Amino acid sequence: MSRTARVLSLAATLSLGLGTALPATAVEVPARPQAVILPAAATTTWQTTANLNLRQSASASSKSLLVIPKHTKLKVNRTGNGWSQVTYAKKTGWVSTRYLGPAGQKAKTYRYLSSYQVLRQNASSSSKSLAGLQRKTKIERLGATGSWTKVKAGGKTGFVPTSQLATGQPAAVYRYSQSKQAIYKTASTKGIPAKTLASGTKVEWLRTSGSWSYVLASGSYGWIQSSKLGTKAPVVDKVIGSRWVLDKTTVRATAASTGKSMGSIPAGEKLSLYSVSGSWSKAKTSRGTGWVPTSALVTSAYTTTSKTHWTTSDVNQRVTNASSGASQGTVPKGQKVTALGAAGGWTRVKTSRGTGWIASSYLSTTAPVVDKVIGSRWVLDKTTVRATAASTGKSMGSIPAGEKLSLYSVSGSWSKAKTSRGTGWVPTSALVTSAYTPLSSVSRWSTSNVNLRAGNSVATKSLGVVPKAEKVIALGTSNGFTRVKTSKGTGWVSTSYLGTSRPQATQPESTRPNDTTHRWTTANVNLRAGAGTSYVSKGVVPVGEKVSYLKSANGWANVTTSRGGGWISESYLGTREPASLQPDAQKVINAVSGRFDDTITNMHTIRSGSTGHSSGKAVDLMIKNYKSAAGVAKGDRLAQFLLANRTQLGIYYLIWQDKIWLPHTGWTEYSTSGKYGAQFTGNWTDTTRHMDHIHVEVYGSAATNRALDLGVLK
To answer: Which one of 3.40.50.300, 3.40.50.720, 1.10.1200.10, 2.30.30.40 gives the CATH number of domain 303-364?
Structure first.
């Protein structure tokens, strides 16, 4: 082969890489290089067509000496096996022959069509059509003629409008099918469908012809009516779960009880759930897609029934068919209930608690023989439960002091009751009829000579008199009495006659100091500039302050106080230092402070005129907006919180909204009962009936250290 032929062969070999998009980084030898052999002494000038590694030897795994930039002119010393030896920057090495071209050869330039175009034979829109070119087609630019550009595309050379060419590939334009639609091979519904698209299918838009659009969908090209495409994906309902209907229910066109009725669906129907909005659920029903109340649905398969069942034990009735559902109350053992249906191991029932759910395992279609609860009892001390009414009966285990029992019957000195150890027998003498809060053998002192009684009531017999200032051991509290160990034995003492510290011994009359120069304020009271309410107030003297008593005039006392000198009504001054606030009362104040700021306007404690207030054992919680339904509701919530934590706070009783709560009676009438508030007869007001405040009476120092129950606040 002549040298000219060999050069032409090399040029042919090198031209294989021209027109190919080359990487910006250095390239390597192709997978199957073509060998071009030149004489060792021959040198020819070539040009790199890409950034190219200069290798130490003719191998892609050889060390790179440096990178030769694209379009660099090189002299080739010799070539073989797809590699050429060259010298560059005073370094001699090897480069891939594939990326060498004749020196001075102009690189090809490319453009992209920004829309569908017809390739014309000449630079004229009336010229013969050679081919149709799709949007984004890559074409080789050959030259320009006026507003037309000569190009090469698909093996054909022709002209396209220069305005429809872009230097970079145009971004894809996407559309979405707005419903289930067919795409056709031609722009006509009479054509052959290429495929069917689901609603919301994303397609690439290529061009428009009349009322049709040419698109690329999942690898297939075809035509779809433009009116069936949108720039945004349609909102398509997606099934997120299944629901079952509890009762015959109306399907609404909108999420409101006033929405147009689409008809009724029966109990037990299975629905496909799409979404939940507030108290309404959107679902596919036998009446079409619409809205039904969420409360009318359940998440488990629901089978309707109309059988009578009986509870086999005391059991919680819940709002939903799950143990985490809120309790509607306890349905006692043996109660007859009407079953409406079943779902997920639960039975939907109608009971005295309303309509709710009970675990199916606690129901039977046979009426059980059950004990009837005749009352409640509380355990005084740790007590053994017996299987029979005898001390020799089999032990069922011990129950702790303070446990509440459901009493079934009494036989001699034994009582049958439901306990935490099951239904069994306990000594009647170990029980009390009022709620009993055990204490950890704390010390108390009698504040006066007081009867030690056999029970927690003044109606029980006296076991003896405990003298004033005797130290006793408090075991527990119930019904305003404290169970104590004393020098007279174990019995009950009225809690109001016990103190948390030893009282000072009473001085004989002849040795008592006669303090006529001091008084104590019995309430927060104005200090007046003169002896009368018409005089300006110089400030408020707080309750319990000791003041210097100078003289009296017309029912007013001239005094010296922390606010300076002035006059205070004698009715707000006492000759004895007032009692201090008891620990339980302080615990009540601490518990509600910060938690009920939107409910309580003020709190009152020590004052005269009330045994509880004057002894520091009462707190009045004044209710904001008490005449409104919202105010009463907030007061009810506060009362529930106090009762839920009565043992933690040492609470004895509450009065609110003309009702009194006592441990042994619960809520009963107050002013209309004839039992309470005799001092208010003929003077019943919102305050004396306790409509505007909650009166909290405490034991004094009976509160436990258990954590507060905050469940009512959730």
So the answer is: 2.30.30.40
Q: How far apart are CA 495 and CA 491, in angstroms?
A: 12
By DSSP bridging, strand 73-80 and strand 83-88 are antiparallel
Nearest in space to 158 (alpha carbons), one of 186, 184, 137: 137
Is residue 282 within 8 Å of 254, Cβ to Cβ? no
- The DSSP output letter for 257 is T
Distance CA 645, CA 489 (A): 31
537 contact partners, CB below 8 Å, separation of at least 6: 526, 527, 528, 529
pLDDT recorded at residue 527:
92
Q: Decide if 706 contacts 647 (C-beta within 8 A).
A: yes
Can you tell me the distance from the alpha carbon of 619 to that of 654, in angstroms, rounded to the nearest whole number?
10
Cβ contacts of 671 within 8 Å, gap of 6 or more:
658, 677, 680, 684, 688, 689
Q: In terms of CATH, what superfamily is 241-298?
A: SH3 Domains (2.30.30.40)
Paired with 659 in beta bridges are: 656, 669
Q: Taking the domain 437-499, which CATH number applies?
A: 2.30.30.40
Domain 173-230 matching CATH 2.30.30.40: the answer reads yes
Residue by residue, DSSP assigns 544-573 as: T-EEEEEEEETTEEEEEETTEEEEEEGGGE
Which residues, 6 or more positions from 76, have their beta carbon under 8 angstroms from its beta carbon? 38, 43, 44, 45, 46, 84, 85, 86, 100
Which CATH number, 3.30.70.260, 2.40.10.10, 2.30.30.40, 2.30.42.10, labels domain 516-574?
2.30.30.40
Contact 408, 374 (CB under 8 A): yes
> Can you name the residues that pair with 230 across neighbouring β-strands?
176
Q: Are 70 and 50 in contact (CB under 8 A)?
A: yes
- Angle (nearest 5°) at CA 264 between 259 and 267: 125
Q: What is the mean pLDDT of residues 210-214?
A: 92
CATH 2.30.30.40 fits 109-166, yes or no: yes
Dist. CA 74–CA 64, nearest whole Å: 17
DSSP code, position 591:
H
pLDDT band for position 508 (cuts 50, 70, 90): very low
pTM to 2 decimal places: 0.30
Domain with CATH 2.30.30.40 in the chain: 3-102, 109-166, 173-230, 241-298, 303-364, 375-432, 437-499, 516-574
Summarize pLDDT for 650-664 with one digit per residue, the tens.
999 999 999 999 988
| Cα–Cα distance for residue pair 640/54, rounded to 1 Å | 88
Q: Where does the pLDDT of residue 19 fall: very low under 50, low under 70, confident under 90, or very high at 90 and above?
A: very low
C-alpha 632 chain-centroid distance: 27
Token output for 705: 């250290």
